[in-house]
Amino acid sequence: MSRLIFSVLILFATGCAEVKPWQRGNLARPSMAFDPDPLESKMQQHLYQSKEGGFGGYGIGGGGCGCS
Amino acid sequence: MAGRKKGRWHRMPSRVRKGKRKLASLLCAALALPGMEFGGAAQAQPQNEGVIARIKYQDYREYQNGGTHRMHIMAPSVMLSGPLSERTEFEFSSTVDVMSGASPFYHNTLTGASELGVSDKRRAVDLKVTHYFERFSIGVGGAISTEDDYFSRSPLVEARVWTPDKLTTLAAGFSFSNDRISSTNNPDLDERRRTNNMFLGVTQVLDQNSVLQSNLALSRSHGYLSDPYKPADRRPEQRNMFAWLTRYNRFFPASEGALHFDYRYTRDNWSLQSHMVEVAWFQPLGEHWLLRPGLRYYSQSSADFYANEFPPSDFEADYSADQRLGNFGSISPSVKLVREFGSGVSVDLKFEYMLQRPNLKLGSAHDSQIDPFHAAVISLGLVKRF
Fold first, then answer.
1. What is the pLDDT of residues B223-279, one digit of tens each?
2. ipTM
3. Beta-strand pair B345-357/B328-340
């Protein structure tokens, strides 16, 4: 596990090219957003959380049980 | 703030001003592209998308015991987001889950089998307001969720800080939830559960076509964590969970498609560990259509007090036969189709199938007695951008 975390840190430290503002057109496409459909993501995470033992990591918020 | 900007602009040599004007015009051109948000990939500025209304209807059906219909959930929901001022935006959402059917009594024996069918309604609302400053943003909000037997309130605060080039964003958040638990089977039950959630994340633009995000989340729950509907269910009063999620998005100019790859590891003090991998591909088809196939795999090892037996051998010890705390693996293929219409309207349809089985778990240990569990989720959505 620590090797995996280390690899990600290395990626962050070395893998970043300089990207000028006018080179960010592709990054700004809706399909490149982490949650292009935030309502879907919210419902999906709630569903998985009610069916699985491990959850979290997608952000802060939500609440309630809906555990059935 | 505007006055200061103007002053700085006029103090610049004319050559620099020309260069800056050129840059500004390029930026304006970029901002005019649909969905374009300068720094958006690193989540470093307001969305600038105007008001967006989303409506979704989700239908969830699950099956077990060789096709027995177990639980049906209908979930209509809405989300409204947009600017409150030039630098402030809000996001509001509301969901109603209407549940009916039978919930597992223990293992896969259903309450419905003893004619104790489950019928419940969950209503949830949440609101978040985010204000953007020059180099950071602050968001505050809260969520309320109510059911016949469950009430939860959770305020939240989050902050983001980004580098001047907006290629790196750090995020931190904290939320606190105060839950009240009852039971329709036992009206005398009145228990509390408190949870603190902490969140730390970094988003990094790697190059013109890829962005990486890595988040750490810690949740600490204290209080009544058992399930009041499962006989003899008795869980420890403290649960600390650590989750580490890494997400990678890559755009492929040749096909104009985008790949999303997520990996998450979680571990808690109940010895439950999980791995999750999710892959999705966003493919535009012509001018108006988008197809998104996806595949998610999840695997968990059981909590240390989980027992694949009923009744428990020791009624004084921690015990749960809830299969959600057992050993299993799960695989979920999905497909989503989006159709863009004119004037900011789009409609989407998604189908997801979920299969949970003990032998899909990573590694060898599994409880072969638990029947496979299937679920089908269909959702229909409508988005209107004003």
1. 999 988 888 899 999 999 999 999 999 999 999 999 999 999 999 999 999 999 999
2. 0.85
3. antiparallel
pLDDT tens digits, B151-190: 999 999 999 999 999 999 999 999 999 999 988 878 888 9
- CB spacing of A22 vs B258 below 8 angstroms: no
pLDDT for position B161: 95
Structural domains of chain B, with CATH: 61-385 (2.40.160.40)
Q: Which tokens belong to A27?
A: 């990054």
Q: Is A24 within the bounds of a domain?
A: yes
In contact, B181 and B224? CB cutoff 8 Å: yes
Structural domain span for residue A30: 2-51
Residue in B77, B245, B268 nearest the CB of A58? B245
A60: in domain: no
Q: Chain B 265-324, CB below 8 Å of chain A: which residues? A: 265-268, 272-274, 276, 282, 284, 290, 298, 300, 302-303, 324
Query: Is residue A14 one of the residues assigned to a domain?
Result: yes
Instruction: Characterize B307-325 residue by residue with b for buried, 16 or more Cβ atoms within 10 angstroms of its Cβ, and e for exposed.
Output: bbeeebeeeeebbbbbbbb
Q: Which of B11-15, B260-264, B271-275, B331-335 has the lowest mean pLDDT?
A: B11-15
The C-alpha atoms of residue B104 and residue B78 are separated, in whole angstroms, by 30
- A9 belongs to a structural domain: yes
Residues of B in contact with A67 (CB under 8 A): 150, 227
Shortest distance, CA B179 to any CA of chain A (angstroms): 8
